[in-house]
Amino acid sequence: MQSTAIFVESRIVKKQKGAEHRNTYRNKIIKTTEKVQSTEIFIDSPNSTHYNILMANTYTQLYMQIVFSVQGRESIIKKAWKDELYAYIGGIISNNRSKPLAINGMPDHIHIFIGYNPTMSLPDLVEEIKTSSNKFLKAKYRLAVFNWQKGYGAFSYSRSHIDAVIKYIGNQEVHHKTRTFREEYIKMLTDFEIDYQEKYLFDFQHISEWD
């Protein structure tokens, strides 16, 4: 949104004699466009002039890698439709105002690297990705038993790491010739110094080749 103008009307309402005064407020958003550049607030009351208060913008630069797994061997990702799945997930991310940077994986799990827009909480975004992609696969390919496992890993990166993370995700098949998903995931948790308990990790399938 280029600008959002918010007009706040303040009106003092007097009760009966001896009663306390009470303030009532009415807020009205009158104009919004695509990208917020500034927020202007005009405060008006019967005994005052307009005051234009310019509010500071909010700026973020957040890069997140999200990792989660399929539920059981009956839900493995097929090579024949994996690219369409990745493209669909990219659309979900874009529609929720984040930016897909890299999406790839193996039959038993997926890596999603995004420029994250915090206007939507990360748990809600992951849930939307899982729920919508699940419905898409079941409708498009009649996969009655396909499901994602509960839970996910989320890892943040600085801008200087973008190229390396994109390259790593793009080379998933190479990495998993010598390392299982379980080994990869535990290494990520360890590298980011995240405390974990084995019993709360994924139900790993140890699938390292495409059908």
From TrEMBL:
Entries under InterPro entries matching the protein: Transposase_17, Transposase_17_sf
Cited SMART domains: Y1_Tnp
One Pfam family here: Y1_Tnp
Protein name: REP element-mobilizing transposase RayT
Domain Transposase IS200-like: 59-172
GO BP terms in the entry: DNA transposition
GO molecular function: DNA binding; transposase activity
UniProt cross-references to NCBIfam families, sorted A to Z: transpos_IS200
Entries under Gene3D superfamilies matching the protein: Transposase IS200-like
Domain of life: Bacteria
